[in-house]
Design a protein that fits this description.
Mean pLDDT: 90
CATH architecture of the largest domain: 3-Layer(aba) Sandwich
Strand content: 25-35%
Radius of gyration: 19 Å
Largest sheet: 7 strands, mixed
CATH topology of the largest domain: Rossmann fold
Strand order of the largest sheet: 10-9-8-11-12-14-13
Distance between the termini: 53 Å
Length: about 280
């Protein structure tokens, strides 16, 4: 078993600093992350580590953020303990629980078990939490659903548990693609098709509900595609952007006859629901 190197970062401001830092560290080879009250702990296997591991982490040179860090050597057994202690159960509206396999079985209606690895979407982040709330408020029985930028697959799994007829889960990141497949199997899902790629994979499919928790730039580029693949009386739910982006997103959707009907906000992050 491998030992690990841990980097304990203090990040100010936390939003969007931690999210940017996770993205850049993931590209550098870090494989697991634990968000803390003042920043982030990131882990990389010792044999994958090198002295210059942080040389391409651009946010560390940004004047917009103040980031300091400490380095720690961690044995495999201790790393497992740290990971388990840092991954807390998430409960949304007392209806849906997101947990790791080592957590006790909850009493909520929906029980989602995931191993997040390097994929985005443990339920801890504001955007995933809000998207879960949005899904819980939609009648998905017999519906065809798209989970775009699926990450760990939480939303696709919840959609199947909520009665969706079929779910396409798509992510451009290979690690997320593989992790979503694992998590779908872990939750005994039968109706989820996981694909690696972007919105170009949609071809001629039509969906009753499209869920897209991605960054603002990707959403702005793909909103026309989402609109074109949304069926009559369809629902589009978006997140991955801040409150000052609302007008931009809303204007882009209105050009495609999509009307905003619900807004959720959480620590400056936003989720919007549209209908056609």
């Amino acid at each position: 078993m491998s030992d690990y190197i841990a980097y304990h970062f203090k990040v100010n401001p936390l939003v969007p600093g931690v999210e940017i830092l996770i993205a850049e560290l993931g590209l550098a080879g870090f494989e697991s992350f634990i968000e803390t009250e003042d920043g982030l702990s990131a882990f990389i296997q010792k044999e994958q580590w090198q002295d210059a591991i942080l040389k391409d982490i651009q946010i560390l040179d940004s004047k917009e953020f103040q980031i300091t860090y400490e380095i720690e050597n961690i044995a495999q057994t201790n790393w497992n303990e740290q990971w388990e202690s840092g991954f807390n159960t998430i409960v949304v509206d007392d209806v849906c629980t997101v947990r790791a396999p080592f957590h006790d079985e909850p009493k909520t209606e929906y029980d989602i078990i995931i191993e997040p690895k390097m994929s985005f979407g443990t339920g801890h982040h504001e955007t995933t939490h809000m998207m879960i709330k949005q899904v819980l408020d939609i009648d998905l029985k017999g519906k065809d659903v798209l989970d775009m930028g699926c990450g760990t697959g939480i939303l696709a799994i919840l959609a199947e548990m909520s009665g969706a007829r079929s779910i396409d889960a798509i992510d451009i990141d290979n690690w997320s693609y593989l992790n979503c497949i694992e998590n779908a199997k872990r939750n005994n899902c039968k109706n989820i098709t996981v694909k690696e790629g972007d919105a170009s994979l949609l071809e001629d499919q039509t969906y009753d509900v499209i869920l897209a928790n991605i960054n603002r730039n990707v959403l702005m580029n793909d909103i026309p595609k989402y609109s074109g693949h949304l069926g009559k009386n369809g629902i589009l739910v978006l997140s991955g952007f801040y409150d000052n982006d609302i007008k931009m997103i809303e204007n882009a959707c209105s050009k495609h006859m999509l009307k905003m009907v619900k807004k959720l906000e959480r620590n400056n992050w936003v989720s919007l629901k549209f209908i056609n």
